[in-house]
Amino acid sequence: MKKSNDRTSGILIEFDSGIVPPPYSHVYRLSLDWSNSELLAELELHYTDREDLTKEEILDEGFTLNDDFSFKGKLDPVWKKVVSIEYEKTKWSGRNIEEGGLVLSAIDQGKPGQSKAPVNQEHWQMLAQDVIQAIYETSKKEAPLTVRYRQVTQDQTSDCAITMNFSSREAIFTLKHESRTINWEYAVQLLKLVFSPDYDYEVAKETPGTTRGEYIECGDGYWHELGKGVINVDSTFDAVQKIKDGFENLIEE
C-alpha cells in the first residue's frame, strides 16, 4: 500500500509571526516544487503593520524601509531530500495559523492540498529559515556566513574558519589554507553555540589577538576574546567552553 504522501511533488509552507509587534511582524509563503528533475522555489515575504511606525523606528531596529522580498527560481536539489524526509515523518496538530505559526500543504499535481500545522513548530520554522537563507544566497541577496576563529597556544597559532553555504547545504572548514567539507549538523550546532553568548563590542578589536587565548570573528569584522569579550548568559551552561571545544575538535581532526 502506498503512503498518503507518495504522490507529493512538493510542499507549500505558510508562516505568520502572530502577535509579534512591527517592524518584526511578517508573513511568508514558500513553495517548493520537485515534480520534475529540478527543485523550483517561490518565496513571497512581507513585513506587516508598519504603517504607524516612523522611518526612524524602523531603521533603529536594524531594518530597511523595504524588507519585503520575492523570489522565483531553482534551488540546489539537496533541499528536496531534506524537506521531503522531514515532511514524511511530521506529526500534526490542530493549531490554527491565525494564532501565529507555520502550516504545511502537500503539493499534488501542481496544487496544494489542505493546510496542516506540524506539532514541531520550532523545528519547521528553523528548517524554513534555512531554505530561505539558501534562497538569499542563490539570489545573491546575501553572501554565505563565515565565522573565523584563532587559537593561540604556547607553541603555535591556528587560524581557521567555517563557511556556511546554505545554497548548497555545505559547511566548509578551512585551516592553514586547506579546506574540507564537514558535517552540516555539527556546523549548525556549533554556530548556534557561537551566537548564544553576549559579545562586548566595547572591548572588541578589528584584528585578532596574538597572546595566548581563543578569538572569534562572527562575520562582522570584529574580533572577540572568548572568556573576556564573549560572556556566558547562563551560569549553568558554559557556551564559551563548548565553542572552544567545538573548534578544537575540528583543528585536531
Q: Would you kindly provide a written description of the structure presented here, covering whatever features stand out?
A:
With 253 residues, the protein is an alpha+beta fold. It folds into 2 domains: 10-138, no CATH class; 145-252, no CATH class. Helices cover 23% and strands 34% of the residues. The chain has 5 helices and 16 strands. Strands 4-3-2-1-6-7 form a 6-stranded antiparallel sheet, with helices on one face. A 6-stranded antiparallel sheet has the order 12-11-10-9-14-15, with helices on one face. A two-stranded antiparallel ribbon has the order 5-8. Helix 4 (184-194) runs antiparallel to helix 5. The longest helix is centred in the middle third of the chain and has 18 residues, at 121-138.
Give the SSE string.
Answer: EEEHEHEEEEHEEEEHEEEEH
Question: How many whole angstroms does the radius of gyration measure?
Answer: 21 Å
Total number of helical segments?
A: 5
In percent, how helical is the residue content? 10-25%
Strand order of the largest sheet: 4-3-2-1-6-7
Number of domains: 2
**End-to-end separation:** 46 Å
Which structural class do you get from the secondary structure elements? alpha+beta
Salient structural properties:
2 domains; about 250 residues; globular; six-stranded antiparallel β-sheet; alpha+beta
How are the SSEs ordered, and which strands pair?
Blueprint (H helix, E strand, L loop, with lengths): L9 E7 L9 E8 L5 E9 L7 H5 L9 E7 L2 H11 L3 E2 L7 E8 L2 E2 L4 E2 L2 H18 L6 E8 L4 E9 L4 E6 L2 E5 L1 H11 L3 E2 L13 E5 L5 E3 L4 E2 L7 H14 L1
Antiparallel strand pairs: 1-2, 1-6, 2-3, 3-4, 5-8, 6-7, 9-10, 9-14, 10-11, 11-12, 13-16, 14-15
Helix pairs in contact: 4-5
